[in-house]
Amino acid sequence: MSRNLDMPIFDADNHMYETTDAFTKYLPAEYNQVVKYVEVNGRTKLAIKNVISDYIPNPTFNKVAQPGAQELEFKLKNPSSKTASKPGDLALIEPPKYITSPPAFFNPADRLELMNEQGIDRAMMWPTLASVLEERLVDDPVATHVVIHALNEWMYEHWSFCYEDRIFATPVITLAIVDEAIKELDFLIERGARVILIRPATVPDYNGRRRSFALPEFDPFWKRVEEAGILVGMHSSDDGYTRYTNDWNGLNGEFQPFAGRSLFSSIVGAEYRGIKDTVASIIGHGLANRFPNIRFLPVENGTAFVKPLMTTLKKLYAREPERFIEDPMVTWKRSIYVHPFVEEDVTGLIEAVGADNICFGSDYPHPEGMFDPITFIDEISDLTPEDQAKIMGGNLAKLMRIDPTSKIL
Questions:
Q1: How far apart are CA 82 and CA 380, in angstroms?
Q2: Minimal CA–CA distance to 124: which of 8, 295, 10?
């Protein structure tokens, strides 16, 4: 058992592992060749339009890395007063090479029991393999909508979108065809979705064109989002930026987050350009001003982009205020919420955006996430109890239209 804190804990970044029928169970027969599992040298791989993807090394998720493996390795090598275990914490262990995935990674009933053991009252539950889809179907907007709808039907059947008011699965919407996106949004709202997952990237169109989802052509969709009061989650995904780093590296191929990368690619990736450009577009293209009641929450994108982007916005506003509808910091603090990684400077982040715009997330059960999610509280121990409660769950509860003082455990 982990610690049980005296404040409601709402984890903004938990993950499900999809079963192998997640994309195919509800896929219409005429699209049954778009996504399939194939055997390659004795290993199961995902093939999209007959192109084998190594984006996720084991897309069956039967064997996975230990949750929080990277954090475990770091803490075991670098003990300190801040990272040392405290009474009630899970014991630090040398992570095995892999573990057999327990049922809690695949279904909500078992996951709820695990959350009870972890001291987590509520959690957003993001898909894992889903992030492979949009970039690999970039040349076929119709198929993208069809496959994502099939995934959402599976997610609703297996997880629901609001399981016992504690687990909130996050269905995906692709925006390639606006009318289809609106139809999908209505489908999800009717089934109780509180949050949607929009890829933080440009949107593919026909004939190879890409464009920002913040442009006015998408306003009919955003109008419906605002009317519904649904939260817009923007989880880290394959944003297509590999096509640029490929040019610099002299390579061709897909983004592989778990494969070795050149130092150049690591330097570029450390800037989190995808989410930085996405937030810049939400403000710069006026989406957050045309629809001021929409709330955007980037998840698992860290906050390294926040201060540099804010510096740029402040500088531009000082030079050319007439180009802005309002002070961009007013826009940001009304519309944009962020999720810091555990190793980031949360105190400095509060100075930049304020405690009201920050949400805790553990990335559990991924190896790059947290081994014992509740221990994030130690990273913000210098804050006031009020600010700690906001970050650990209160802010997200408000975004999800839940009483921020409602504690379950």
A1: 10
A2: 10
